[in-house]
Specification:
rod-shaped, about 95% helix, mainly alpha
């Protein structure tokens, strides 16, 4: 008779939840990194546009060209604000997923400790039974030996 953990199905389920959560966390972290890269690109575009606008303004550009650069710069500013909001949302998703992952990992760890504890208790009980059976066998052999000695 081997050891059987009655909560093994629950432990397996927690392991699967942990794996899925790790994958979701990795995907959300990737999205956050991409969003931050996009924000940096937008900052650079806006900065270079503003520098070009200053440089061209000092050289004397037409109103139409000035308005074009200004509109582009303002659009990048709006894109930056929207991107910052999106980054904030994704960062919150990452934190929620991280908290969920930690809770699943703790629950799994509790189950693993319980399984280990029950496994050790089972092994001690099996060892105790084996020792008792061995002791009983030794006592029977000893008694047979005494009976043979008396009957001789």
């Amino acid at each position: 008779m081997g050891f059987s953990f009655s909560l093994q199905a629950l432990l397996n389920w927690k392991r699967n939840l942990e794996d899925l959560s790790q994958m979701r966390l990795a995907e959300k972290a990737r999205k956050l990194r991409l969003t931050e890269e996009q924000l940096e690109r937008l900052r650079q575009e806006r900065s270079s546009c503003e520098e070009a606008l200053k440089r061209l303004s000092s050289l004397g550009i037409g109103a139409a060209e000035f308005l074009l650069y200004k509109a582009f710069s303002e659009r990048r500013g709006e894109d930056l604000l929207a991107g910052k909001e999106r980054r904030k949302e994704i960062a919150q998703e990452v934190e929620r997923e991280r908290a969920y992952l930690l809770s699943v990992m703790k629950e799994k760890k509790v189950l693993e400790r319980l399984k280990e504890k029950r496994q050790k208790a089972f092994e001690r009980e099996m060892e105790r039974k084996e020792t008792k059976a061995h002791d009983d066998l030794t006592v029977m052999r000893y008694r047979r030996g005494i009976r043979r000695d008396r009957s001789s």
